[in-house]
Amino acid sequence: MELSSQYSELVGSIGQLLSAGRQKAFQQVNTILVHTYWEVGKYIVEFEQKGNEKAEYGTELLNKLSKDLTFAYGKGFSRSNLFQIRQFYLTFPKVQTLSGKLTWSHYTEILKADNPLEISFYIKQTEIERWSVRELKRQMKSMLFHRIALSKDKEGVLKLSKEGNIIQNPQDLIKDPFVLEFLNIPEQYQYLENELEQNIINNLQKFILELGKGFAFIGRQYRMSIGGKHFKVDLLFYHRILKCFVLIDLKRGEIDHQDIGQMNLYLNYFKKEEATEGDNEPIGIILGAHKNHVLVEYATASITNQVLLAKYQLHLPKKEELQHFIENIIQE
Questions:
Q1: What residue segments make up the domains of the chain, in order of their start?
Q2: pTM of the model
Q3: What is the per-residue pLDDT across 161-208, written as a single tens digit (0 to 9) for each?
Q4: Residue 297 burial by CB count (10 A; 0-12/13-18/19+): exposed, middle or buried?
Q5: In CATH, what number does 178-316 get?
């Protein structure tokens, strides 16, 4: 029996070693591939800049190069791929700026962004949050950079593009709006709040991705007994970076002053009854389909607790509605 236990440990140890080795090999292969494509792009651009493109092939350089490379070396050299490789070098003319944490597939997605600020942001954010290519696609499609940038001034947008969205204070948690298109709730469907909550629980991994890095799920309908009465907060998380509880209440319609007062009550309870040594003060987030800015201003004026309000929407935002703000920043 003892031998069997030791043997199981042996198998487990070898498995861990193989997994680590394969991951390391994958990273090395990926780094080599990214740098190779960068060099290929450099060769193409330098060939063009010497005037050879016009002199020998005119605008057919990539077409001819695609055919010749495919004939000589096989797949992977379609005209569209060569165009991406060329664009890759033009976007990152210094090889030192390339990230060892991003795959070539990451880069091909990020190059679809419309401007240098977006490109820089998505590179940094992919590094910070370790997004898969699928997760990166979703965040770009949901206009994450634009949604975060709307709440910042010019300097804040520039910093965001260089450093990513680093969580340093409660306000950094807010995206306005949060986009919950992954719930697949029809826009005209008259859903109830408990249906919204259940859909979020069913898609918890995607919801946490939308919330951002650092959220650890604790529970739903978390019960509190206050003064002989029972209350429940819809969703309860703990934030590993800010080291505090995060309470989320969901509202189907517009957020009103009563919702704010109720969240303030919950936060006072958590400060005294749930927080332990080392915890920072809890944060409350109220997610609603609408919010009245004037009402919010007056309702939160004298509250010392961190009550954050944000809108959610069940469909992807229209690009033109968010693009104008970023274009003005770039022009300035």
A1: 2-155, 178-316
A2: 0.81
A3: 899 998 889 989 988 789 999 999 887 777 888 899 999 999 999 999
A4: exposed
A5: 3.40.1350.10
